[in-house]
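Section 5: illustrative case.
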């Protein structure tokens, strides 16, 4: 699905030197590379504060902890997303309110969110799925109307631009009260292990999250609140410092691959190519098709037989997962999410996709629907 080694080879001298510098410094936790990355990402995102941490799941947990929510408080989250989004809600004793998504963009909408708000709703976690922004202007308006904070799950969309109706453009993850991301190796901005970060332009939230990520302390051995131990190590920061310089190029390369897929598949009646929103760029963390003739699994088997990888993100919606089913009234349904889970399939997409490889993939997808 993703070839990371060719990407590494293109920047190998800079990466190797950066890692060697960390090894020579023996500053493996914190230090200059982490500070440098923090400042570089703040500049890239045009956000006041970036708090690096150990992974994207920790980023979500720390963000929610900073809101000082109480046990049983409700947090609205889409049911069509990776489990980490709801996992941290449950771990903190909060109640994930899993809602449906838009059939075309796969993202939660302001209308869906507003219908789910109750007096117990204390946070909203929109997910910018597969690399495209949720409709944040309208979601933010709903949140402001009800005085509910927003934590953006930006793990799949670092570098995505969102355009407001007045023409203003902001990076996803910087629109709500707090944004979070992951630097898992396969992400558009990925390190060589685990890593994550939290963003905010609100000073009081930044101070809280810095403390929480560092055992709840602002001064060593003085712990003012419950915290966790979540740090981005210096080697990962060194890698990210190099790769951040190439992020826009990486995203453009993914967009070029997606455009070729689109052109090849747009006239196949049984396929729906990824939707595009006029108010968001799409950086294609995943290239996800909908197979509308009920033969999604057959297509996957067809591709596997020809050594073409594909993935189903996500085969089981959150509200049907055993660990989360008790949070949801099983007499009800989320029809769009449940239908999407039966239709979606993602094809390989990455920054170093060779033309002949993509041509081979396109040929065999096309052949499947012409047989």
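Designed sequence:
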């Amino acid at each position: 699905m993703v070839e990371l080694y060719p990407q590494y080879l293109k920047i190998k001298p800079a990466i190797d030197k950066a890692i060697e510098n960390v090894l020579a410094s023996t500053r493996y936790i914190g230090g200059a590379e982490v500070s440098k990355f923090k400042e570089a990402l703040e500049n890239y995102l045009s956000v006041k504060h970036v708090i690096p941490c150990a992974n994207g799941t920790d980023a979500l947990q720390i963000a929610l902890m900073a809101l000082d929510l109480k046990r049983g408080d409700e947090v609205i989250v889409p049911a069509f997303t990776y489990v980490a989004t709801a996992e941290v809600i449950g771990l903190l004793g909060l109640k994930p309110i899993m809602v449906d998504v838009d059939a075309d963009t796969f993202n939660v909408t302001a209308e869906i969110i507003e219908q789910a708000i109750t007096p117990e709703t204390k946070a909203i976690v929109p997910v910018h799925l597969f690399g495209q922004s949720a409709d944040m202007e309208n979601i933010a308006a709903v949140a402001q109307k009800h005085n509910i904070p927003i934590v953006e799950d930006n793990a799949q969309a670092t570098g995505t631009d969102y355009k407001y109706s007045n023409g203003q453009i902001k990076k996803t993850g910087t629109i709500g009260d707090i944004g979070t991301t992951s630097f898992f190796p396969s992400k558009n901005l990925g390190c060589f292990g685990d890593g994550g970060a939290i963003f905010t332009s609100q000073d009081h939230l930044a101070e809280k999250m810095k403390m929480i990520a560092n055992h709840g302390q602002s001064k060593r051995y003085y712990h003012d609140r419950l915290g966790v131990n979540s740090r981005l190590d210096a080697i990962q920061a060194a890698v990210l410092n190099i790769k951040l310089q190439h992020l826009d190029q990486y995203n453009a390369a993914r967009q070029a691959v997606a455009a070729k897929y689109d052109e090849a598949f747009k006239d196949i009646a049984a396929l729906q190519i990824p939707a595009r929103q006029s108010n968001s760029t799409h950086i294609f963390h995943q290239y996800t098709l909908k197979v509308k003739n009920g033969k999604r699994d057959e297509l996957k088997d067809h591709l596997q037989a020809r050594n073409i990888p594909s993935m189903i993100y996500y085969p089981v919606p959150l509200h049907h997962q055993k660990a989360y089913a008790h949070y949801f009234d099983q007499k009800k349904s989320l029809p769009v999410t449940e239908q999407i889970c039966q239709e979606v399939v993602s094809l390989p997409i990455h920054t170093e996709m060779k033309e002949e490889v993509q041509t081979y993939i396109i040929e065999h997808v096309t052949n499947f629907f012409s047989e």
